[in-house]
Amino acid sequence: MKTCRRFTTIRDEHEREIGYLQAHSARHAGKPSARSSAKQAISAKHRMARALNGHFTRCPECG
Fold first, then answer.
1. Taking the CB of the first residue and of the last residue of the chain, which one, N or C, has fewer CB atoms within 10 A?
2. pLDDT exceeds 90 at position 2
3. Are the CB atoms for 55 and 10 separated by under 8 Å?
């Protein structure tokens, strides 16, 4: 699939955020903050999917 530069930027930003949240969750396993970070990582994955899908439908280069 050929995608534009903006698509890659959106994906990279979201993946970086997800990585930070998952790393925090792993470092603080068993603590309430770790559980919160794990839930936020799942939400971030959903937000990434929604953002990329919206971009894909609107972008003339990607779609």
1. N
2. no
3. yes
- Going from N- to C-terminal start, the domains of the chain cover 5-58
List CB contacts of 16: < 8 A, sequence separation 6 or more: none
pLDDT band per the 50, 70, 90 thresholds, residue 53? very high
Q: Are 7 and 40 in contact (CB under 8 A)?
A: no
Average pLDDT for 26-47:
96
Residue range 34-55: mean pLDDT, rounded:
96
Asked if 44 and 21 count as a contact pair (C-beta separation under 8 A), the reply is: yes
Non-local (6+) Cβ contacts of 35 within 8 A are 25
CB-CB neighbours of 59 under 10 Å: 13
